Amino acid sequence: MGFFHFIGVFLLFAASILLLITTISAPVVNDIALLRVHLNNGSTLNFGTFGYCVLNAAQPNDGNDWCSKVHIGYKPANIIASTAASQDFDEITGGTSDALTSTMVLHPIECGLAFIAFVISAFAGMFGSLFGALIALVAWILTLISLAIDFTVFGIVHHHVSDYSAGRERATFGDGIWCLAAAFVALFFGMFIVFFTCCAARREKRRGVASKQEVQPVQTRRKRFGMF
User: Fold this and answer.
1) What is the pTM of this model?
2) Which residue ranges does UniProt annotate as crossing the membrane (predicted)?
């Protein structure tokens, strides 16, 4: 069971790294994006967790990258409307996508929980590993929520650009959102394997104790018979 437990621990570590990549997407790291919009002027809009970047920005940046400040919640609908050659979002659709970006604060929380689950599962005992699996379960649920919200937010933007730009712009989901999806899978299997190996180890320990209790009375009776 030790080998399988190591696999589960490794998956928890991998999930924390993947969630870290999603967390440090634009504007922290310019090239990592949840959604990438290629504009007809040669620039690229990278939307991330805490803002966005314009790569190879046109005037007045003369081909340099420009990024927003790091903050919780921003307005991708307004950004697309002001930079892309597409129609404005309707009020409900645009307002929904803008409001939901505030929930991306869950990304660093999920990353922290996944790393805590990894540390506890790797260096604690059996009961500590069970607690680590419980923390991984919380991180997995939050990642599921984030995954649904992120695909909703950027799915709206992706659909709008594809439908109303008349082929002049192109939107693609970035590596950041695929890292989030991979973390969701890694968390699930890591959590399941750690929990399963801990339960199996506990069952084996109980069997060992029970077998010792059965053997001891037999040995005592034999010793008394020999003395007699």
Assistant:
1) 0.84
2) 105-127, 134-157, 177-201
Q: How many Å apart are CA 9 and CA 3, to the nearest integer?
A: 10
Per-residue pLDDT of the chain (228 residues; tens, 9 = 90+): 578 889 999 999 999 999 999 999 999 999 999 999 998 888 899 999 999 999 987 665 666 889 999 999 998 888 887 776 555 666 667 778 888 999 999 999 999 999 999 999 998 778 888 999 999 999 999 999 999 999 999 998 888 888 776 567 889 999 999 999 999 999 999 999 999 988 876 565 555 544 555 555 545 445 444 443
Cβ atoms 51, 71 nearer than 8 A: yes
Domain range spanning residue 27? 2-227
- Write the CA distances from 12 to 9, 133, 141, 176, integer angstroms: 5, 9, 14, 18
Q: What is the CATH number of the domain that holds 144?
A: 1.20.140.150
